[in-house]
Amino acid sequence: ALAYSGDMTYYTPGLGACGKYNSEKDHIVALAPAQYGNDANPNKAKVCGRKINIHYNGKTASATVVDKCPSCASGSIDVSPSVFKQLASLDKGRVKVTWGY
Question: Which label site among 51, 76, 83, 95 has the fewest CB atoms less than 10 Å from its CB?
Fold first, then answer.
């Protein structure tokens, strides 16, 4: 499996680039444009609905790809608060993680 590394941040989800609405309780992730891809119709991106495993500090959390994070550098991810809290406290705000499919 491909492994990526980068920063993990969290955000308040809404209507994602994959075309579905999500809430903070959903275990979801937005990928950087480099990993999300640049399909003409972002709703049809191949990554939509795929699960990733995120690793930090000996812990692992899984999240479903539903969105694109335009400001994320390649390898960085933006997750829902519920995913972030599984790995680190929200007051950390930004942590270095590795992740893959």
Answer: 51
